[in-house]
Predict the 3D structure of the following.
Amino acid sequence: MFKSLKISDQQLQDIIKKGSIVFLFYALNLVLVYFISIFISKYYGPEVYGRYSIIKSLILILIIIATLGLNTLAIKLSSNTNHYNEGVFKSDFFNKSYLIILFSSIIISVFIFLKKKWIALYIFKDIELEKYLTIFPFLFIAAVFLNYNSNLFKGQGRFLLFSILSSFLNSLLLFLAILVVYHFYSKDEVFLMISYLVSILISFILSTYYAFPLRRDSVLNKTSIKKLISTSFPMMLSSSMIYIIFSIDILMLGFFDTSKNVGIYRIITQIASINAIFVIAFGTVIGPKISKLYSEKKVKEFKNIIKTSSKLIFFITLPILISILLFSTKILLFFGTDYLKGLYALILLSISQFFFAITGLVDIILNMTGHQKFFGKITTVTAVLNLVFNMLLIPKYGMLGAAIATGFSIVLTNIFAIVYIYKKLKVLSVYLPFLGNKTY
């Protein structure tokens, strides 16, 4: 099987080389995330881990709203020589994007702060969340700009910087902080959030340091705020709705169920999503390349990079799925007997995440080739369906209901995208081993 993976193509070698750097830090970050999960679950309890997970999911979804898709647009524009070339900004998209994001993130932060007690009591029915939400505004603004800066580095091809600052550094700092604080200072859960805030702030400050000062061309191409938003908003609907699909189940479970079960379910989603890190890692490298090749009308190279990347992802992720399915019970018992209640949810999510991994280039392909509006429509529909299914299934089936809703949404979204890409771009964005290369 693996003999068919002959890596002779220079582009594929480049993907593997640069993707390996990104993957290394994603893998290290994943290890840290699991250590953090285990530590919080075992020492603070699943209830606290549930609250922590709700805050993280809330941040992820609100980043989507605050950035209005400008974070995704930053990848495309900073990989385009008309806007950024060899360390020099050719247009003013960066400055104006910063202003828009600052304005929207402040509005959201103020609203959350003023309504923190109401959100804790009436949405999540957990008054302990109020102290988390008190810290939330500062945490959120830093996270928003860290996210934007990281995407800027990705588009610029600064993959090592992106890999370290996007998630690895704050996970490392958080892990070290909670170890020190818990053992030597206080076991109060509020310090968990303070540690999280400090880790994000340090990463944000460092990312801003590397994003500034800006080297600008003497004559900048002007980009209107209206044009930026009209271009970025469809991208928000396309690429970002995927993250909503992956995060809304946590918030819905928090609404219908207990913080303890949220904590258990969050561990399950992290185990199931191991495969997703491969498509994220490779997508970091492939995204700017796809945009460049498509804009230069290099059709053969464009199709080849999709074909070889999909094939590589398939052979890497299949053994991981098999391992999770075979050892799912033992994996859950490692965290504790309470986690066994999520066994079927783990199996279902692992299968759907595998499908997401082997078809996960679709959002990158559509966003980087000007088809973001279509993908935005697909993901908006499936995100709404996901929300409806969560509302219907969680009250009756709990974690399994959340897994069914999320898994269905993932599969449906990517099937529609695969068909559309094949029809419009004449390339199959998923590797099907039993059909060989005839499908391309």
About this structure: The first helix runs from residue 10 to 44. Confidence is low (pLDDT under 50) at residues 1-8. Strands lie at 84-85, 88-91, 216-221.
